[in-house]
Amino acid sequence: MGFRFLLPGQSLMMFVLLIAVVPSTTVAKYFIVGDEVGWTTNFDYQSWTVGKDFHVGDKLVFRYPKGFHNVFKVNGTEFQNCLVPSNSSLRLDSGSDIVTLLTPGRKWYICGVAKHCKQQTQKLVIQVQPPIVIVPAPAPAPAPSPSSSAPIQTVAPSPAHGWQRASGPSSISP
Ligand SMILES: [Cu+2]
Description:
Elements: H1 8-21, E1 30-32, H2 45-49, E2 54-55, E3 59-63, E4 71-74, H3 76-81, E5 91-92, E6 96-100, E7 105-110, H4 116-120, E8 123-129
Parallel strand pairs: 1-3, 2-8
Antiparallel strand pairs: 3-6, 4-5, 4-7, 7-8
The structure holds copper (II) ion (CU).
């Protein structure tokens, strides 16, 4: 009476809720490049970036029919000239490529198929901002509280140093 057993779906929900409740210091966002249009030709990706803030930790998702396009992360010169890197190990081509933004700064991406970059605007440049850090609610100024810390015998600071050596061994003798 009153007891309910968790069905698998419910326990999954509990799990998801638990994850949502765990405090985190950053908030990562997923950006579907081109939104519902995805990663394709003849789309204005520079307009797509307008009004979006990209931060370290966010993820770009390039979606396209596998085999029709790919994604190369390139540098500014390669971007400008649509130069496809010869190292094919740099190519993403799963059709649902997730790129995590790891560092702040300018990031460039092009499609390496045919002339999609050069003639059909399949190129994207974004500016990545430093990560968003959620700062916990500011605590009152940390005044030494007699009740908070471990009981440490206070010893008068040595006048030679002006500071107090921490109790316990600070180094290990051989
Ligand atoms: Cu393409």
